[in-house]
UniProtKB/TrEMBL annotation:
The keyword Metal-binding applies. Transmembrane segments: none annotated. Signal peptide: none annotated. The keyword Iron-sulfur applies. Residues 174-203 form the 4Fe-4S ferredoxin-type domain. Pfam families: Fer4 (PF00037), SCP2 (PF02036). This is 4Fe-4S ferredoxin. Keywords: Iron, Iron-sulfur, Metal-binding. One of its GO terms (molecular function) is iron-sulfur cluster binding. InterPro entries: 4Fe4S_Fe-S-bd, 4Fe4S_Fe_S_CS, SCP2_sterol-bd_dom, SCP2_sterol-bd_dom_sf.
Length: 434
């Protein structure tokens, strides 16, 4: 038995583990930095139940970061960026494994979720991951979220991947969140994003990012499969999918999913190790790092009639636009309510001011009030105030209508959906959520 194992097994069951010692173990396992969060920390309260469902012994979450090579991520050659994502991603899981093994060898319990894939695919289209690494890392003092929705480490910048290990020991001390945000608010991520997903005011269009950057993941993959299924023959398939796209999908299936554009990471100058090139020569930084990504000729995948489609045509006319489905099909009324804020298109909502009441009955019962005004969306439980349009619907019929499996006229005739108010507002609502 090792000295560490003897010390652990001979110590009182409730004696706190030294944070200093755990930090040394994590760094020895290969982490580049590490922080600790109690399972009872209010900052991760929204994660607690799910974490304990998977790891009921968890008392502490060990959050750690792994550095990536910056120049790989910055390269316009996406193969360069993706090999770095996969290589460091594999090493992140390996560090989690080594740290969990150290605990097991000491007679204690520890486990970890995947850094990324595989995930809990049976939960699709709901939350597929056991632990949200980003909020845990922020609570552990390893960085703050930037405008681009990535964690920025104070030293390494956003050129990091995150891992989390759940362990069954309480610590004698825990990490504290950073008291400042390393994000420079330089808006370079806004300028380089090919879909306009990152807005200057801090708003984020998840649908735009998801549709393009994750084209060969999950929803985009399903759209590709359905394209195959709908093609009458090989020639019909090739009319919809180029040979290069087929090869790219094969590459993702064979070697791991490939991101289309992690440009927001590539251009971020924040972090002590990163900022010098931007601070000392901003013009050179723009010319060598930002401009090549902006000028790259490539295909941008967009949802039809979306803000992203308009943005690409206006901002990057040299890039090709391809209309696709993103697989974000609504499986339940609860998912419909949650997904409204994720799919909302603020530019398409310009000029619309309306309040909608949704009363769903049948398999799911839920009342919602949705207010759209000044390009902003507000969703609340219950029927609040007066509505410009009231929608009463059988839950399953409404979901089939959203998936284009049944027509609105038929649903109205059969009284599965009822409208009170100006029916044109329903079409206006649909334009905000393509």
């Amino acid at each position: 038995m090792s000295i560490e194992a003897h010390d652990m097994l001979s110590s009182p069951a409730l004696a706190p583990f030294e944070a200093r010692r755990l930090r040394e173990m994590a760094l020895a396992a290969g982490a580049d930095d590490v922080g600790f969060v109690s399972i009872d920390d209010p900052a991760i309260a929204f994660e607690r139940a799910e974490i304990l469902a998977a790891f009921p012994f968890a008392k502490t979450l060990v959050s750690f970061v792994m550095k990536m090579n910056r120049e790989n991520i910055r390269s316009p050659a996406r193969s360069s960026a993706n090999v770095e994502f996969h290589r460091v991603g594999d090493e992140t899981d390996a560090v989690s494994h080594r740290l969990a093994r150290l605990f097991e060898d000491m007679g204690r319990r520890a486990a970890y979720p995947a850094m990324a894939f595989p995930m809990e695919a049976a939960n699709w289209p709901g939350k597929m991951w056991v632990i949200s690494h980003k909020p845990v890392a922020v609570a552990a003092g390893l960085g703050k979220m930037g405008v681009h929705r990535n964690v920025i480490h104070p030293k390494f910048g956003n050129f990091i991947l995150l891992g989390t290990v759940a362990v069954d020991v309480a610590l004698d001390s825990y990490s504290r969140p950073l008291d400042y945000n390393p994000c420079l608010s330089c808006k370079l991520c806004v300028a380089v994003c090919p879909t306009g997903a990152i807005a200057p005011d801090g708003a984020f269009d998840l649908s735009a990012c998801y549709t393009h950057n994750y084209r060969e993941f999950m929803g985009g993959f399903m759209d590709w499969v359905e394209t195959i299924a709908q093609a009458k023959n090989a020639a019909g398939y090739r009319e919809k999918v180029s040979d290069a796209e087929s090869v790219s999908m094969w590459q993702s299936l064979a070697y791991g999913p490939n991101y289309k554009a992690a440009y927001c990471l590539a251009v971020c100058p924040a972090g002590e190790d990163v900022i010098a090139a931007y601070r000392d020569d901003r013009k050179g930084f723009l010319e060598t790092i930002v401009d090549p990504l902006k000028q790259k000729a490539e295909t941008i995948y967009v949802t039809p009639d979306s803000d992203a489609e308009d943005y690409v045509k206006r901002r990057f006319p040299h890039k090709s636009v391809k209309r696709v489905a993103n697989g974000m099909r609504v499986a339940s009324i609860a998912a419909f309510a949650r997904g409204l804020s994720l799919r909302f298109q603020k530019k398409r909502a310009a000029g619309l001011e309306a309040v909608y009441h949704f009363a769903f009955r049948g398999a799911e019962r839920k009342d919602l009030t949705v207010r759209i005004a000044n390009g902003r969306l507000e969703v609340k439980e219950g029927l609040i105030g007066d509505a410009d349009l009231r929608i009463r619907a059988d839950a399953q019929t409404w979901l089939r209508f959203l998936r284009k499996e049944t027509g609105l006229l038929r649903a109205l005739i059969t009284f599965k959906i009822g409208l009170s108010g100006d029916p044109r507002l329903l079409a206006a609502f649909g334009r905000c959520f393509p």
